[in-house]
Amino acid sequence: MSFARLSWGHWLAAGAALALLLIMAMDWYGTAFSDSLRRDEGLVSTEGQLSGETGRELAEQIPPAAELGERNAWQAYAGFDTVTTVRSGAPLGLLALGLLTLGAARAMREEQGSGPAGARSAPRAERARRPVA
To answer: What number of other Cβ atoms are within 10 A of residue 100's Cβ?
Structure first.
């Protein structure tokens, strides 16, 4: 099989499928508490005289505590509630799924001959079948 045979619909579907696989590992949902911990994580100082041992301990303890309230596509729990926040992974996953569907539909139309690539190749196929006089 040659990759030159693939149409842009095939490439779009393949790229979107790969993107969706990577996006599914991103955080999709979280809680308001984990969001506040992530904000606080950037505020903790671990350098200088003012940070001390407390600052270093907080810098070590905040990320695992925030991670407890975050979920990706494989860990997502059922339903939304008042403490659930939607992260960037969910809309990106929806976008990648839409592009995957668009690419697959385009590739299928071209394979069946109703798309632009199939329309150009159909007259050539008919000429090949006609008897030469």
So the answer is: 19
Range of the domain at 39: 29-87
* Residue 40 neighbours by CB distance under 10 Å: 13
Q: Are residues 18 and 33 in the same domain?
A: no
Rounded distance between C-alpha atoms, residue 101 and residue 98, angstroms: 5
Q: What is the largest CA-CA distance in the chain?
A: 96
What is the pTM (predicted TM-score) of this model? Answer: 0.62
66 and 41, same domain (yes or no): yes
pLDDT for the residue 128: 55
For residue 41, what are its two tokens? 């994580």
Q: How far, in Å, CA of 44 to CA of 22, rounded?
A: 30
